[in-house]
Amino acid sequence: MNAVGIDVSKGRSTVCIMQPLGVVVAEPFDVLHNAQELKELAERLKLLSGETKVVMEYTGVYYEPIANVLHNAGIFVSVVNPLLIDDYGGNRVRKIKTDKKDALKIARYALDKWSDLKEYIPAENIRKTLKILNRQYIQYNKLLVMQKNNLISLLDLVFPKANTLFTSPRRTSDGHEKWIDFVSKFWHIDCVSKLFLSAFKTKYQSWCKKNNYNYSDAKAEEIYEYAKTQVSTLPSNDSVKFMITQAVSQLISLLKTLAAIRNEMDSLSSQLPEYDTVMSLFGVGRVYCSQLIAEIGDVRLLTSRKAIIGLAGIDPPPHDSGQVIVKSRSISKRGSPYLRKTLFQIMVTIIQNQPENDPVYQFLDKKRSEGKPYKVYMIAAANKFLRIYYARVREALNAAS
To answer: What fold does the segment set 127-269 form as a domain?
Structure first.
């Protein structure tokens, strides 16, 4: 038995090789994440006599280069949750934190949990790319919120509440929103109020045609009358125009980027066998479908329905101490926050649409009628949704394989 503990860092890992009874075969040594050194490490481990198992912590994407190389070389690799390592062997008054000590600790963990270690299987290229795209989508969405808030605050100085003039949804083809395109042309109330109504209508109609929006005579009059009642705190000069149009330009660029990412995510997820099954679940559209598949991955790698609940971090951890048994606890949150957010958004969609024949809504409505608090019935419904997801998607994947 050769237990190899690897403490992973960015671009470098510390490796320790240990055998039963605490025999250290190789003192901790460093390996760079380049092709040559990873190949040499794989060859060194394959020369060890007896069975060899490698254990490393799940550390973002840093572990993937070394894990993939060793796995492809035919070496057993197990990637474990850092919390399991952190909780293991913590019987010291003062904790010691160095890469060498961590590598030794991981090797001891590997020996102790030898028969329970689960082999690491690299994610399919499509699933891996989809997950990274989803994380990029989330980051760009955060920037979008910031840029929108910035533009709205600027408009309060020149065209108050211009963002409320239209209720049109975001265009799926290019991501454009009508109010943002509108203020790129009519960036100040003077661009509307200082014109005659007929002149504004002509200008507005031309803008609608150019930007592929429907024109309404009544809407043009409504905007004109509204602009007449507003007061600006900044003049309509070139500097102010530059400030507003630059903010609009950045926002439009973000919207186009997000639309492109959404289309690419849908293109990738549609190539996976569970796509149609996930899309058939109520409350799931193209974006939520891609996000669910990205964050959950291949459900065949999950051991049970409980595992998918734990993956989302919406499982309440047990608490039993002596005669005190707590039956109601907060969720663990030891899972993907991105998956939890997507689940919450799907639950909101279900509540808004109230599909009477949907089992998730029926369960949610039952909990709500029992007087359960908002968070309780939302989490309970998300739990129900994941169990249905697990059963249906697993069945679809097994049928496709």
So the answer is: Helix Hairpins (1.10.287)
